[in-house]
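The data are quoted verbatim for reference:
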Amino acid sequence: MAFKDECGVFGCWPELEASKQTYLGLYALQHRGQEAAGICSRDEGKLYLHKGLGHVADIFTGPVLEQLPGDGAIGHTRYSTTGGNVASAAQPFLVQGRFGQVALCHNGNLTNTEQLRSRLIQSGQVFTSPSDSEVILALINRASADNLEDALLEALEQVQGAYSILLLTETQLLAVRDPYGFRPLSLGKLGSAFVFSSETCAFDLLGAEYVREVAPGEVLILDRDGMRSRFPHPQIRPKPCVFEHVYFSRPDSLVYGLSVMGTRREMGRLLAQRHPVEADLVVPVPDSGVSAALGYAERSGIPFEFGLIRNHYVGRTFIEPRQSIRSFGVKVKLNPVRELLKGKRVVLVDDSLVRGTTSRKIVQMVRAAGAAEVHMRISSPPTTHSCFYGIDTPSRDHLLAASRGVEQIRAFIGADSVGYLTLEDLQASMKDLDGQGFCYACFTGDYPVPPPPGGRP
C-alpha cells in the first residue's frame, strides 16, 4: 500500500466561463482525488452547485456545466482523509446562513475537528456530513462578527491543523492557507482573472500564468474592487508538507515554488550516491517513482528502462474473479516486461514504502518475470509515523518501518537489498539548508501541531 492522494482545489474570479475553467482545473488535479468532485459557481448574486461521486469528466458533462453560470467558481476533487467516501462529504459545501449563500472547499485536515463538532452539536448545530469542512462553515455562521470576512477570521482562530480553503459568496471569493502552510495553494492570472490551484499544472492546462504561492497564514479577498491580502495570525515558521514533492504532486508542477520534477530527480541522484549497487537496469515503480529513477540512473550510470507497465485505466473499484489470482490487485495495475527483466540485476525505485505489502508483491512479480536480482531503492526516509494533516496514512502499528529495521524490511519484501534516502539527503534535495523548512513528521514524529486526541504518533 502506498500513501493515498489527498484533495485538490481550484477557483477563478472574475471569468466569464468560470465553471468551465474550473472543470479544466479539476481535470488537471484529478490525481489528487478520484472519489468525488464538485463545482460551485456564482452568477448575479446567486450560487449554483453540482457535485457527485466519481471522476471529474464523468460528473461534469456539457449540459451540467451549462447549469453552472457566472463569473466566479470554486471546485474540489476529493480523496477522503476524514468523512469516508460518502456522497454527503463531497465538496464544495453550500449553505444559506447569516451571510447569505456561502460555499467552501478545503484541502487538508483539522486536528481538533471532534472537539469543535461536539461543542457545536451541544449548542444545537446540525451536521449533514462527517466532513471537517462543514465544521468550518458552522463556525463562520456562528461567529460574533457582523461581516463574513471577519467571521472567517474568527472561525480560523478556533481551528487547528492543515487547511487550504477556497470560499465563494454572493459577492466575494476568498483563498486561505493555514499558518504552517501544510497544504499547497498557488495564485495565477488568466487574462484579467485570478485563479487558484493546489498545483500549477492546472495553470498550464488553462494557459494561466503562475504568480506566486498563497503565503502561509494569508487570507486573500477578491471582490468587485480587486484583490487584497490579510495576515490575521501571529507569524510562525512555515512547515509545508514535504510529501507533496516525494509523491503527491504531478512532476510538471511547481509546489512551494520548487519544481517537483527537479527535486525528485535530485532525490534519485542522492539515493544512487548513498546506496550504489552493481546492476543492469534501473526500473521505476510507475508513476510516482519515475522521476527519482531517472535521477538514480543518471548518477549511477545504470540504464533506465520501463520494466513495469502501468494500466492507467483502473478505476476506483474492479471486480475480482471468483477463482482467486495471486496478487490480483497489483497485477491489474502493473505488468512486467519480461523481455527486459529476464536474467537482469534490477534496481526497483519507488517513492515510499508504507505497509510493505505492495512492494513485496512487486518484488515477487519482477522475480517471476525472470530477474536474477531485485534491489529496492526508496527515494524517501523510512515512514515511521502517521500523518494528521490531510494525508491518508495507516495507523503507526501498520507502518512497516515503525517496528522493523532495514534488514527485516528487506526480508519481508523479499528483495536482495533495500536502501532508503536519508533525512539529510531529502533535506538537501529540497534545498532545506537547516532542515527546518518543511514538515517531516511522517519520518521523525516531530509534529508541528499536536495530533488529535487518540491519534497515535
Summary: Residues 260-274 form the longest helix (15 residues). Residues 262-311+327-436 form a domain with the Rossmann fold fold (CATH 3.40.50.2020). The radius of gyration is 22 Å.
